[in-house]
Task: structure prediction
Amino acid sequence: MPAKYERVAEAIREQIRTGQLAVGDKLPSTAELKAEYDVSYGSIRGAMLVL
Result:
């Protein structure tokens, strides 16, 4: 089972692949990402590092 930060990073990658996020779009805030994926700040930070 992938780590939480890996699942968040993969979800964001999928949004990019499907066009939900385009080049130049801003990502949601850390607070919004935390709430959407029900993870900690550290998991969001980890996802941003691998992206």
User: Anything to note?
Assistant: The chain has a mean pLDDT of 96.
